[in-house]
């Protein structure tokens, strides 16, 4: 996202963390090698560092595994309702991060009993998804996508496969048609609202997403079907249309972009790391191990906004004031040297924070459904195109210019053409 002109002087704003070595979460060098920034911030500030968001809005970046776990486990101290933020008077109406920071009647911003109620409705809706049927549907989608380029011997996977597969799977789960201009527009608008590029309007894009899902909710109230949207509409808790719309946005946004980047980063690992590139087909290292390692080392969601301090509190040696914003540094926490001695990072367990932690973690069984989509996408591609190789040198691959999502801009590959 581009950084706009400062709306105020961050060094004089009362109670703000800026002015004490705060670093802007932007810039090409950070986007391509964020681990270097995390290492530098840890060295200078420790587990909690002062940073500047778009427009030089101050916040705290939680870098430590233990500190991030503490924040996410203590909602009574670090809450999700963004209306607590002490910087709202400095936030312009067109602020790029507004779509996912501005308060909405969404499960994301609820707390306490209301959060448990809303998250429970989503969980029950997702629990009815048959994982075997989802795997079958994803395999069918994958075969269709691969068949479209299999005869050419080369393709760009991000646009032709990686983003398309979870998009089709998610909209199908929610009861939308797999094709059509409005579906394609919805997915593009979700991307813009999550991570706008130069000249794109995330606030307007978020509005269009809401409009399309309001239409879907009305359709499902009139004619419920065997889909997630219908289960939300007909749930006995009786959520309002706007609550359902906002929760559907959360479900679709959390499923589509992060899952696509999980697929992308796993394919990159398989195609560039000799441990996997040489051994996956031989059975010594599995696709599952690659998927898990990516969640540790190249997690699809690098950073997430966030939590807001309920009262003044100490965290990681920092004085956090009531209303301060804390950015969850998921990628930094997953590679915290305190949990990986001697700079070694591995994938022996699933204690990563890639699905967050505490009551506001991704609701069960969302991580399992994401795993089904990602695993099916990777395995089907390798089965159909067993000699798949990068079309460029690994160092030529470029990461998307984002501090929030971790994924490649392009993933060009070559393979032996396959006739249908």
From TrEMBL:
InterPro entries associated with the record: Cyt_P450_B, Cyt_P450_sf
UniProt-annotated stretches for the region Disordered: 1-26
Superkingdom per UniProt: Bacteria
Single GO term (MF): monooxygenase activity
Family affiliation: Belongs to the cytochrome P450 family.
Matches recorded under PANTHER family: CYTOCHROME P450 YJIB-RELATED, P450, PUTATIVE (EUROFUNG)-RELATED
Official protein name in the record: Cytochrome
Organism (species): Streptomyces nanshensis
